[in-house]
Amino acid sequence: HYMGLNEIREKFLEFFESKGHLRLPSFSLIPQGDKSLLLINSGMAPLKPYFTGEQEPPRRRVTTCQKCIRTGDIENVGKTARHGTFFEMLGNFSFGDYFKEEAITWSWEFLTKVMEIPEDRLYPSIYENDDEAFEIWNKKIGVPADRIFRFGKEDNFWEHGSGPCGPCSEIYFDRGEKYGCGKPGCTVGCDCDRYMEVWNNVFSQFNNDGHGNYTDLIQKNIDTGMGLERLAVVMQDVDSLFDVDTVKNITDHVSKISGKTYGESYKTDVSLRVITDHIRSTVMMICDGVIPSNEGRGYVLRRLLRRAARHGKLLGINEPFLYKVCDTVIHESGGAYPALIEKQEYIRKVIQVEEERFDATVDAGLSILHDMIEKAKNAGSKELPAADAFKLHDTYGFPIDLTIEILEEQGMSTDRDGFDALIQEQKERSREDRKRMGDVGWASEDLGLDKSLKTEFCGYTQLEAEGNVL
Ligand code: ATP
Ligand code: MG
Ligand code: MG
Ligand code: MG
Predict the structure, then answer these.
(1) Is 90 exceeded by the pLDDT of residue 69?
(2) Any idea where the Alanyl-transfer RNA synthetases family profile domain is (predicted)?
């Protein structure tokens, strides 16, 4: 039966509290003391020291709903029903306390008893040789053997870089034939949207030293992760995570501003979904202290904001608007994350400033890029010279990914290595400049945002210069 996203979150945390877990608030998206990760991408990431035994957890059993960013999924966003760059991950964790049997039993209990999902629409998967997990699913829970899927390392051995890892058991939900790709052999594990992975139970018992050498952890742990939005798709029986109550309200706001109706055309829908997703991730990142810049996390933020702004253009929105949509994100998630409300004015401002900056140069940049594309095409080339991509980046503030995305729409590419080399040269030049300028140089480096301001001013001069040439 129908359940709102905020209610589902609460039900999950309450359920695991009733199983002796300590509820902790979501950790920041910015990893603390973990240089291997740019942004938190799972519930277990901020808990690593408890898994390895380096630190003593506040309790052996913990449950959280963790904000996550996965930029690796950016290509999927708007195209699949189930991927966002931002999502919330529900999780229950055991640090050397309970293991496989309890984890599997409770995940089944939660889905079938608390959420009341029909058993015959759920399918577990296990790591190929994990007979222990098979026995639990088959004998204890009673899932018939032909409904349990065995997968290899790619899918059912969970590891992200170095650190705690292990075999896992996932639970898939069959959304029905209408979501299937229709290809022969479409079943659990198919990439389409019919069999949707909802929950991953990781039996975290090994440590990877980062070079593929596995040793037993001093304790056996449980690390589970379930996408809150995906569970909401199931509970609300909707098409995609963009139709989930809280997320839908954001899409509706974008629809209203753009005057475009959701569901009318594939192309428009993709843009509406991309904007909806990116505004969620960027609001959350800014709230956690990330600001737009040309490096690291700040660059991820900038890239997401500018990509959203450009999809706004595709919808015909020709002025800053993301800072307005920000209010709906905060309205929907402010209850679960009160910091959003406290920082609302600040978050809005950061987005507005970035939008205005990009807005000042984006039209000129787009028309120049189209000229560049024409020129390359006329010369019979499908590759934009690196110098052109660099100019767009340096003068018009186009993140390289944005340029590549626009090029791909035209069946073109660019010389990525050449581009990276130009960026490197530029870095070295500014390092030299700073050396010459002494302290003054460092001061402007610290302000971070100054760099893009300077870029903009170049933009105007450049613009005039271009105008004169034409
Ligand atoms: P998928 O195969 O569907 O991409 P995954 O195997 O990469 O998912 P995990 O790393 O196992 O995902 O993460 C645990 C859970 O988090 C998943 O079972 C899913 O419910 C959810 N999840 C993962 N990636 C996303 C995403 N990009 N957007 C929304 N939810 C996600
Ligand atoms: Mg994935
Ligand atoms: Mg998967
Ligand atoms: Mg998975």
Answers:
(1) yes
(2) 3-470
